[in-house]
Amino acid sequence: MTNTLLAPRNPLQILGRGLAVVFSLIIIAVIAFFVIDEANARFGVMAISLAVVALTSDKGRMGRLGWVLDLGLMLAFLYSAVWFFRVKEELYTGFFTATPENIVAGLAGMLAILVLSIRAWGVSLAIMAVVFVVFGFAGPYLPGILEHFGMDLAGFMQIGWYSFDGVFGRVTGLVADNVLIFLIFGAVLERTGAGESLIHLSTALTARIRGGAAHAAIVASAVFGMMSGSVAANIAGTGVFTIPMIKRQGFSKNFAGAVETAASSGGQLTPPIMAAAVFVMADLVGMPFVMVMAAAAIPALFKYIGLFAQVYAEAIRLDIKNLPEDQIPKITARDWLNSALVFVPIGALMVAFISGKSPAMAGLYGLLTAIIMGALLNPDFRREPKRIVHALADGGVSAAQIILAVGVIGMVLAVVNETGVAIRFATSIAAAGESSLILALILAMFGALILGMGLPTLPAYLIIAIMIAPAIIKAGVEPIAAHMFVLYFAVYSSIVPPIAYGCYVAAPIAGGNPLATSFVALRISVIGLVVPYVFVYSPSILLVADGFSWVEFACTILRLLAAVWMLASALGGADPRVGRLGVGQRSIRLLIGAAAMMPLIYLWAPAVIATLAVGLFSKTPTTTAPLKT
């Protein structure tokens, strides 16, 4: 699998990737050997990240003007650095006072981060930050519930730049300490050839299932999606292999792109890594990392069961057969051995977690294990040590991009803390929750989808967790369920139209239409979209929630299985025991599936019984005629 992050095109980009290698090595060395002053570490990480993104980003049509602009931004940040360290002692003692000089310096630093975040992630994140800042200053002039006391420039700069609550706040420290190593780990795992091995093995194992190519793509994208900090990056990395494979088996262009997008987004919700959001969630919830991973396991499993079921129903509807025996890849002993490229590093990671190691140290164990397994099992990896260098460069660039995104989130947090808007927002949703919890959840869902649009997973979760999770906790939802709820919809913002940025990456690879792809992705992800409501009302499915009940757990699993079958066959238009379904059959199954998702026993119990009846009394078709797509 070839990484497509950034191929150097000129000496400055080569220099930037060289700096990214150094950045990765610094991260590894600090985890293994050193303890650095927190302020120095956070500012240093931000400074290196800014330089890496400035040097490696594609300037497009700006030509030399782009390099001049980036040089100016780096000089602006250097100027801000001088003032930051000049007043650092005052920050520790709490006697810092904003002056015109250090305000200008802070503004220069913020501007540099904001502009270069656009290079890394597009305009969505920057627009959101600007909107929040404008909201902060315009408070006294806003109408109705939006009105607040406002903030002045000195107060904003003090909390946003010259404190440990904004750009260099706890979130930046948390990501720098625990998350960046996993981006390097994912890049190294990709360069060892683990991706090719996983795709080959999953293709061979699923080839006898109808729609096997799509099932194989789901497995591969899920595994690599959990290590990627971006749905779009994962689609770009795995989609070039999986999407053509899905199309060759007979699925439509839009369906192929939708499967890859849905699987890649689901990988962000898959333990043990969950795109590193698990470590931030554990810190915010105050729960051990292993318990958060356990909480994520069953919901993620059902998200993928639902996706597999939708693909299977589509294969039946289109009369796509499983591959002929002579076309099924043969699994050799070497293939099983090569699977260790994926599973042994992840196993080492899990062993380190369970034995009580910190997330950063567990990530380091996984990284070193990946390098060792690559050297042992992949002759190309042994012959080309430069693969490790390229992996460190890829990981360093990814780490730099994430840190800039977190820096921009720090600006948003400064406004949130200064204006108290999060408390007001939480109170409004909690008030709605007093009369109707479902209304509070729907409001929270739409808020999460809107705030998360166009953002990578970790920054999206951060801002939504701070703005919305406290609101639904106030409405009576358990903290772990509330944070899992907002994480799910932060991730699903990548497939929800009209933004659906993941689909805009997948559609060109598939040759499809981005908007049509997003609607298909939404349809095949319906189980994943509903699962968050299920674990809010039945938190036992999270395994670690207070008041865990085996009865509730078993009943929830039973009704979810019924819902998956009914909804997949209704939305897919086909059933393995019946063949193609008519409008009436689909409508009835849709109602049964919806009832099975309800937390009321007088609704879900009859739905489960109806599902069993469908299974017992349906007849297997002798032939299935394909439908035109």
TrEMBL record:
Its main location: membrane. It is a multi-pass membrane protein. It holds the Pfam family DctM. It is found in: Cell inner membrane. GO terms for cellular component: plasma membrane. GO terms for molecular function: transmembrane transporter activity. Keywords: Cell inner membrane, Cell membrane, Membrane, Transmembrane, Transmembrane helix, Transport. The chain crosses the membrane at residues 12-35, 41-58, 65-85, 91-116, 123-142, 167-189, 216-243, 273-302, 336-354, 360-379, 391-416, 422-451, 458-477, 483-507, 519-538, 550-571, 591-617. Residues 110-545 form the TRAP C4-dicarboxylate transport system permease DctM subunit domain. It comes from the Bacteria. The keyword S-adenosyl-L-methionine does not apply. Signal peptide: none annotated. Part of the tripartite ATP-independent periplasmic (TRAP) transport system. PANTHER family: BLL3936 PROTEIN. This is C4-dicarboxylate ABC transporter. It comes from Neptunicoccus cionae.
